[in-house]
Amino acid sequence: MSPISQKGEAVCLSVRVQPRSSKSGVAGMYGEQLKICLKSAPVDNAANKECCELLAKALGVPRSSVSVMKGASSRSKVLKVEGVTPAAVREALVGMLGDEAEAGA
Predict the structure, then answer these.
(1) What residue range is the signal peptide?
(2) CATH number, domain at 68?
């Protein structure tokens, strides 16, 4: 199963976040989810905001195009990305993660 799915016009991305990391970035796969490390603490929505900003930058879309669909208070989240195709998301992930993303995608 892939962490990428399509729901209507948007792409859904299943992620697992690790707040309070030493550095922010996409860390690889966590089972069937994309693992994202965040410097922010999960307080006052800071980690969710950082997660959306990080993915928006990685996918080349505006920050407003990325939102948390499910799991706002959980480490496991489903993010909705508008203005991009599943193939473009997959390509961006492969560019960031190499072979590990291809295995999960």
Answers:
(1) none
(2) 3.30.1200.10
